[in-house]
């Protein structure tokens, strides 16, 4: 008899796996599967609950490291050790016991470096050694995909390399976060700063790029420039055109008018010298990666990047879309085949009907060589019924329809439009007018129509003939140069991906291009949430602005590698080498140590010119309420409208409401829930009647009523 134990990342993932087979028994800590073709002796699925295991904190190594003191820096343990996360002991012990009993262990956590980290960190802390480990590698939670994945388990060779990569990233981020945050905070407190700064390897350069845009806008001096604009009246309508001059000096523009014997606002005659018409075809957009979906959803519905990821995760767990944390815009021929098979059903689901242009794969969308761990975000084979679709939340419907429309678009006709350019001469001075006319909406039929204002911007030109005489009135048009616009929250994702465009060094540009900028597809939204929580930026009506605290951070890190996206990119580039077996985890950690030593030595001088600002925060505002029950590094904080975890960088999404059933939840109640998992019986909840109940945390860290508790 072979005892197979499968570790999922979280309970919802374990449940999805179990539903692909026949369940024999469910308990609080595992699910037992009945024997079948895949598992002749059955199998046991257990799970993590967030991170079961975390890196030890400074004071776990030395009690004196709990106090923030400059003379203690750098804080670098001889060996980095792990511990069971607070509140996770029971589940960890259950996993440990199952691992000890197992003949084969299967890593079924998410297929990325963090999934590898979660699995191997748990395995290492259980002390279980020498047992065969296999890897589940799937992109969808659909039942047939889950069964197929378990029937074709992979070796753990690549997984172990990804674990080294993830552990190198986790340890170096720990070292930078612990040491740089204390270093900068303590030096600034000497200058009168009464709060603390949080410094991070990825979050700090991200804030600095927003600061750079702020400085560009702040230092921008608007200047006038002048052009000659003509208003023309043809037989079939009027149109506007511009002469080929644009100058800051109005006198030069006037001189050109004089040279051609032209006066402003006088009735003149013009001749249509040339009409140029071109029919242009626009192919449908590439399939979505997470970041393109986040950008589109922010532009269309003002959704935050984290809101999009959260919604995508729900759709993934409902088996409606493929794996959400992908950076790929391509699919393989396997996915294309099932999309073709379900094409009619997808069209019915969207309430559209069109004849596909081709049912053969097109390299713009289908390219096996471009797909590595994950393919693009597409709908799964499970096409939702109208009832199921209507049962989704508004956010889920919007995001699902966007994914579905983008996927269907690759089968649709091109968008075709006619671009017209008219050259009109007035006293031999040429004016150019451009316009656009839709010929065939093609794939654009699948998406919402643009606003009227946007349509009007694309100037419609009347029908004119070569040699036609038109009425003309000219004037010198004055315009002002415009500063760069602040980022929207959706543009932050794009900015983080493409920050290579802001870097001068060619080698750095190439590295940034290779690693796709700052952060990863899975972490960018959480980085943005972290810098919002830290009060470095604020977002109002989707416009991002930097706060006084953010400006102070940027002034403090200016000139150091912490402000440089290039540094982060070089780190990420080396991390990828570790994942590919070409780099060393020990070397990476050693270089991080050297970087911190350099920072400690150079930092006092670099901080001299920093102006300490009032951050507008009460000292107690960011004080931790309790250790996060779900993740290794986060603390629960008061975040104005709710309580939430600070560790968005690690992807933790734990949050608690401030009011529940008409009752305000105090900080003490939240602290008790985080530390003890239950409160005493509380009065004053409101339903149809007022009632009393205790509160408890369930396995997904949601607050539930506990009516069984009597005191």
From TrEMBL:
Its EC number is 5.6.2.1. One of its GO terms (molecular function) is DNA binding. One of its GO terms (cellular component) is cytoplasmic replication fork. SUPFAM superfamilies: Prokaryotic type I DNA topoisomerase. The keyword Ribosomal protein does not apply. PROSITE patterns: TOPO_IA_1, TOPO_IA_2. It comes from the Bacteria. Keywords: DNA-binding, Isomerase, Magnesium, Metal-binding, Topoisomerase. Residues 159-600 form the Topo IA-type catalytic domain. The keyword DNA-binding applies. It catalyses: ATP-independent breakage of single-stranded DNA, followed by passage and rejoining. Belongs to the type IA topoisomerase family. This is DNA topoisomerase. It comes from Halobacillus mangrovi.
């Amino acid at each position: 008899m072979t005892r197979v134990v499968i570790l999922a990342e979280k309970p919802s993932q374990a449940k999805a796996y179990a539903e692909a087979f026949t369940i024999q028994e469910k308990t609080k800590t595992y699910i037992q599967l009945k024997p079948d073709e895949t598992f002749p002796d059955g199998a046991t699925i257990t799970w993590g609950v967030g991170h079961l295991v975390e890196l030890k904190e400074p004071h776990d190594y030395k009690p004196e490291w709990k106090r923030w003191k400059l003379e203690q820096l750098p804080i670098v343990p001889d060996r980095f050790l792990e511990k069971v996360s607070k509140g996770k002991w029971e589940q960890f012990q259950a996993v440990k016991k199952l691992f000890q009993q197992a003949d084969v262990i299967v890593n079924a956590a998410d297929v990325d470096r963090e999934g590898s980290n979660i699995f191997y960190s748990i395995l290492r802390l259980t002390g279980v050694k020498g047992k065969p480990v296999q890897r589940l590698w799937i992109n969808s939670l659909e039942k047939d995909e889950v069964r197929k994945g378990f029937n074709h388990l992979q070796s753990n060779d690549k997984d172990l390399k990804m674990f080294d990569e993830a552990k190198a990233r986790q340890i170096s981020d720990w070292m930078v976060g612990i040491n740089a945050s204390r270093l900068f905070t303590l030096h600034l407190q000497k200058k009168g700063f009464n709060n603390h700064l949080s410094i991070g390897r990825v979050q700090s350069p991200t804030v600095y790029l927003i600061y750079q845009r702020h400085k560009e806008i702040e230092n921008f001096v608007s200047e006038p420039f002048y052009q000659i604009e003509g208003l023309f009246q043809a037989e079939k309508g009027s149109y506007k055109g511009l002469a080929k001059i644009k100058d800051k000096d109005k006198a030069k523009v006037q001189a050109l008018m004089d040279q051609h014997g032209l006066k402003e606002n006088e009735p003149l005659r013009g001749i249509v010298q040339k009409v140029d018409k071109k029919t242009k075809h626009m192919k449908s957009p590439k399939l979505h990666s997470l970041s393109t979906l986040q950008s589109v959803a922010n532009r269309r519905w003002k959704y935050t990047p984290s809101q999009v990821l959260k919604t995508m995760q729900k759709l993934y767990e409902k088996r409606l879309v493929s794996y959400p944390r992908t950076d790929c815009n391509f699919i393989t021929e396997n996915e294309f085949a099932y999309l073709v098979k379900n094409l009619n059903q997808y069209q019915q689901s969207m309430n559209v009907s069109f004849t596909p242009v081709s049912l053969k794969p097109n390299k713009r969308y289908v390219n096996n060589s471009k797909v590595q761990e994950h393919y693009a975000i597409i709908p799964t084979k499970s096409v939702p019924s109208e009832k199921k679709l209507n049962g989704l939340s508004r956010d889920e419907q919007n995001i699902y329809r966007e994914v579905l429309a983008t996927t269907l678009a690759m089968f649709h006709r091109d968008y075709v439009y006619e671009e017209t350019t008219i050259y009109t001469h007035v006293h031999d001075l040429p004016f150019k007018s451009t316009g656009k006319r839709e010929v065939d909406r093609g794939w654009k039929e699948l998406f919402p129509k643009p606003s009227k204002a946007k349509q009007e911007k694309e100037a419609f030109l009347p029908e004119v003939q070569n040699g036609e005489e038109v009425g003309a009135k000219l004037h010198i048009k004055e315009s002002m140069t415009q500063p760069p616009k602040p980022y929207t929250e959706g543009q932050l994702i794009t900015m983080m991906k493409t920050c290579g465009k802001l870097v001068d060094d060619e080698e750095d540009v190439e590295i940034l291009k290779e690693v796709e900028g700052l952060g990863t597809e899975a972490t960018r939204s959480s980085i943005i949430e972290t810098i919002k929580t830290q009060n470095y930026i604020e977002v109002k009506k989707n416009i991002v602005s930097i706060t006084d605290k953010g400006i102070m951070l940027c002034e403090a890190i200016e000139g150091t590698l912490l402000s440089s996206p290039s540094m982060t990119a070089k780190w990420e580039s080396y991390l990828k080498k570790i994942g590919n077996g070409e780099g060393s985890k020990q070397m990476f950690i050693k270089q991080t140590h050297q970087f911190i030593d350099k920072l400690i030595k150079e930092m006092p001088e670099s901080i001299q010119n920093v102006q300490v600002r009032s951050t507008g925060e009460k000292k107690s505002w960011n004080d931790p309420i309790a250790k996060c029950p779900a993740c290794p590094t986060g603390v629960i904080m008061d975040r104005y409208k709710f309580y939430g975890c600070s560790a968005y960088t690690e992807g933790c999404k734990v949050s608690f409401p401030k009011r529940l059933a008409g009752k305000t939840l105090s900080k003490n109640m939240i602290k008790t829930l985080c530390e003890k998992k239950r409160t005493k019986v509380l009065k004053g909840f409101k339903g149809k009647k007022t009632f009393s109940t205790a509160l408890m945390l369930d396995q997904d860290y949601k607050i539930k009523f506990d009516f069984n508790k009597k005191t």
